[in-house]
Each structure stands twice: as C-alpha cells, then as structure tokens.
Design brief:
Layout (H helix, E strand, L loop, with lengths): L16 H6 L3 H16 L5 H4 L2 H21 L4 H23 L5 H32 L2
Length: 139
C-alpha cells in the first residue's frame, strides 16, 4: 500500500468518514449542488466568455467553497463567515450579469437566484449563531 490512504472498504464510498464529516454542513451540500448546476450552465455561455467571465465566476465559486470549509474547521469563525458573505454577494452579481448579458435564460437565472438565496439564509443563520455565542461567551 505504501503511503496511500484508505477510507473504509474499497469500492464503498459511503463508509468514508471524511465524506460523512464534509457532508455534515447543509450549506456545504447546497453550495456543491449549486456548483454542479452552474457547471452544466457554463456550457451554454459563448465561447468568447469562457476564458474571462466564466473563469472568474468559477474562481468566485471555489473561493466561496474554500471559505465555507475554512469556517467549518476554524475555532473563531466570524471573520471567515463575513468573507464568505462578501463572496456570496459576488456570486449574486455574476448571476445578475449573466442574465443581463443574456448568457442565461430567465428560468436558469431564477433557479440560480433561488439557490443563492437559500445559501444566503443558511449563511446568515450561521453568522447570527456565531454572534450569539460570542456575546454569551463574553458575559
């Protein structure tokens, strides 16, 4: 085996403890679902925009995922969650621009907007819970 890692029985990803822990956060799962949907949408973007606009959109998506995972692992989460909130606002801006420039139709725009709003509600609740724990810890 050497330095290879083994998670559970071979061929059965459901016994993977790391996968179980990563899927524990609902916001992380919703973000992954959004990413999967957007990747299928990016195919419909014009070729001229794939190296510019789409690349920036993808970078923003990955940065948001990185911030969510980082917040999950950190003890002090408040600033990381606020950075994730800023990144989420950028994702909303990319979605608006995609619709304004007619890269996506209204149906896809509404679907992505709803997914972003759901993620925003989850993130907002997480931020509020962190503020509450920081105020109760200070008393």
């Amino acid at each position: 085996m050497g330095n290879m890692r083994r998670y559970g029985a071979p061929g059965n990803p459901e016994t993977d403890e790391g996968r179980e822990q990563r899927s524990g956060l609902i916001i992380l799962q919703r973000s992954k679902d959004l990413m999967k949907y957007l990747y299928t949408s990016f195919v419909k973007y014009p070729r001229s925009e794939k190296l510019g606009f789409v690349a920036d959109y993808k970078k923003c998506l990955f940065q948001f995922l990185i911030l969510i995972i980082t917040a999950q692992k950190k003890y002090f989460k408040k600033t990381t969650l606020q950075d994730a909130d800023v990144q989420l606002e950028l994702l909303r801006m990319f979605n608006d621009l995609s619709y304004d420039m007619k890269f996506v139709d209204e149906k896809r725009y509404i679907l992505v907007s709803e997914k972003l709003c759901e993620i925003g509600r989850l993130l907002g609740g997480w931020i509020r819970s962190q503020k509450e724990t920081s105020t109760t810890a200070g008393k």
